[in-house]
Amino acid sequence: MVSQEGLSSVKLDMLSQEGLSSIKLDMSYDKLRLSDDELLQVMLTTHALGMTTLVHAENHDV
Question: What single DSSP character describes residue 22?
């Protein structure tokens, strides 16, 4: 598991080079939740790397 602080395009590139083909973004826990901008950046980066992105999406405000 990669924390919010540990998630960067450089680390995603390294994980991709190590053979990781997908990543899960979890929006259901405060400690794992990313901002909308962070989610977009991760999705753009994983797309560019040819990785699959799974989003566990929940809206706690509803």
Answer: E
Name the domain count of the chain: 1
In a domain, 4, yes or no: no
Reported as a single tens digit per residue, the pLDDT across 22-60 is 998 888 777 777 888 888 988 999 999 999 999 988 877
**C-alpha distances in Å from residue 42, one per residue of 39, 48, 61, 62:** 5, 10, 23, 25
The pair phi, psi for residue 53, each rounded to 5°, is: -120, 125
Asked if residue 3 is part of any domain, the answer here is: no
pTM, two decimal places: 0.75
In contact, 27 and 34? CB cutoff 8 Å = yes
- Written as six digits, the tokens of 41 are 């950046």
